[in-house]
Each structure stands twice: as structure tokens, then as C-alpha cells.
Amino acid sequence: MQPTPPLTPKPPLRIVLCAPRGFCAGVVRAIDVVERALQIHGAPVYVRHEIVHNKYVVDSLRAKGVVFITDLAEAPPGPAPVIFSAHGVAKSVPEEARARNLFTIDATCPLVTKVHREAQAHHKRGRHVILIGHAGHPEVIGTMGQLPRGAVTLVSALADIDALSFREASALAYVTQTTLSVEDTREMVEALKRRFPAIHAPALEDICYATTNRQEAIAQAARQVEAVLVVGAANSSNSQRLREVAEREGCALAQLVASAADIDWTRYGAIRSLAITAGASAPEILVEAIIDAFAARFDIAVETLTTADETMFFPLPRALREAPGG
């Protein structure tokens, strides 16, 4: 009888878990809006576009009877709710919904709504609004759609600011997408102020607290480790920015993955330290699954790096709070 060969010991791996990470208050509210609407009204509940940018969340809600649509024409008139996503929508969307006699519930993040109101206030005061953001992102489409066509100019890079043709004395104001890189946005704002010293700034920074907190945490962690994993969807702006922050801090291996199934294990064989964070729309269950996947291959030691405590809470829309059992 052959002796059993000894087990090969797992290599050690130090995992730095960033805190805060994952769901922000706006995402929690948006998901709770859908869950509460299902509880009150039953299935189906319609959601225009992804409620948040995460396939796991979307698939979980779809299994409960949520129907995700790209156009309001896909929702039948009647009592079934149609929910607008956390990213916000252009003014034309609720106007179309009213014309179609749809019952709508707005799950727009209150911090996005704040940017909408800033843009509207500047427009009323006769200022042209410059929006710092990424073209095609749902939040940017929604913010630009708050004002008449031509009243907002989108800038996505420093070269866009150089190309602006406004006179220095023009009545201008700027707002920003809430999920941008803090560092990149600072450079853009400084460039705008150099070109247009009289430009009006937001009373409070538009980049949301959760975006800032998660970027600060991963920046600190990236300086301590050989590799970084960001858990989040490829179409999630705030998740992409976390990966970019890690790279900016000098981390040679910084990847964005949707789940443990997306990890390319050939790239992690030699590492002995890893930081993990999650975008604001990524649920903690995905982080836990990734830690388990590393534990199956490494002798892991997990530590938490906490850079901020988050206590923000956004209440549900009044229609859901005032419903029976709300």
C-alpha cells in the first residue's frame, strides 16, 4: 500500500479588506424601494433600466417578479408600479409616464437629485451649466435632461475644457457626476477655474460621500499590497474609479471583477498581499465569495482597514412610507 503523499501547504496571503465598501445609502434605498413596491403591490413591478449597476442584484430582483425595461412603452398602463433607477432620469421621462397613465415611483439617489436641483437653479439665474462627467452614463443623461437642449455642456477630460469657447466673463456654473474620481475631478475643476475665474461652484461638493470614502480607503490599502481586487460591474462608474485609484497609487495588479468566477488565478499565484473593496452597488455576498475562493487556494489572514464610518440613511419615497405596513 502506497503511503499518502503529504498535502502541499497553501501559500500565505494577507488580505486587506477595505471599509467602507459596497452598498451606499442611495443603493440601499433604491433596492428597498423595489422590495417594498413588491411587498405592497405584488409582481410584476417594472423598473426602467437597471435599478443599480450590478448583475447579481438585478438577477435577484428579476427572480422575485421585477421586470426590467429599457423604454416606458414596455410597461402597460395600470396599477403596476414603474420605478426609475437610482441614477436619475431626464425630465422627459416622468412627463412621458404621465402621458401614458403609468404609476411611477422615483428611486433616484437623493445626492443625484441634489445635482439636478443645482443645475436647475443655475439655469434660472441665467448661467450656462458645465457638467463634469462621462458621456452616455445614465446619471449624466438624467442630469443633462433636467434643462433645455443646449443649456448644459458636458466635459469629460481636460482637453474638453481647453476646447470650450465661452468668453471669460460668461455666466457659467459647473456641477459634477456623483461617482467620479476625486483626483480627476479636482484637476478638472482647477482647469475650469483657471479658464473662467468667475465660474459658480456647487455650495457643497457633488461627488457623493460614499464615492469619496471608498476611494480614500482603497488609496491607503493599495500602497500596502501587491494586488487589488475591486468587486463591481464593468458598467459601474464608481467601481471603475476605484480600480483607477489603485493604479494611480502604484498598484501594478488592480482588477475589477463582477464575481469570484471572473478571477484570473494565473495572475495571483505569486502574490502575498491583496486588498479587496467593492463598488457602491456590489453586495457583500460577492465579497464573501471572493474571500472564500482565495481561502481555498491560500492560507489567508484577513485584516480590515477602516478609514471612515458611514451613518447616512435616506428614507423611502413618501408613497411607500405611507402605504399600509410602511
In short:
By secondary structure, the chain is α/β, with parallel strands linked by helices. The protein has helices spanning 25-41, 55-63, 92-99, 110-124, 138-144, 158-162, 182-195, 209-222, 237-248, 284-295, 318-321; strands spanning 12-19, 45-48, 66-69, 78-84, 102-106, 128-132, 152-155, 172-176, 227-231, 253-257, 273-278, 299-306.
- Determine the CATH topology of the largest domain: Cobalt-precorrin-4 Transmethylase, domain 1
Largest sheet, strands/sense/barrel:
5 strands, parallel
* Gross CATH architecture of the largest domain: 3-Layer(aba) Sandwich
The fraction of residues assigned to DSSP E strands is 15-25%
State the CATH class of the largest domain. Answer: Alpha Beta
The rough form would be described as: flat
- Computed Rg: 22 Å
Spell out the helices and strands N to C: EHEHEEHEHEHEHEHHEHEEHEH
Count of DSSP strands: 12
Distance between the termini: 68 Å
Helical content stands at: 25-40%
The average pLDDT value, as a whole number, equals 95
Count helical runs: 11
SS-based class = alpha/beta
What characteristics describe this protein?
326 residues, alpha/beta, Cobalt-precorrin-4 Transmethylase, domain 1, Rossmann fold, 3 domains, five-stranded parallel β-sheet, four-stranded parallel β-sheet, 11 helices, flat
Structure description:
The protein is an alpha/beta fold. It has three domains: 12-23 and 209-306, Cobalt-precorrin-4 Transmethylase, domain 1; 25-109 and 314-321, 3-Layer(aba) Sandwich (Rossmann fold); 111-195, 3-Layer(aba) Sandwich (Cobalt-precorrin-4 Transmethylase, domain 1). It has helices spanning 25-41, 55-63, 92-99, 110-124, 138-144, 158-162, 182-195, 209-222, 237-248, 284-295, 318-321, and strands at 12-19, 45-48, 66-69, 78-84, 102-106, 128-132, 152-155, 172-176, 227-231, 253-257, 273-278, 299-306. The chain is 36% helix and 20% strand. It is flat.
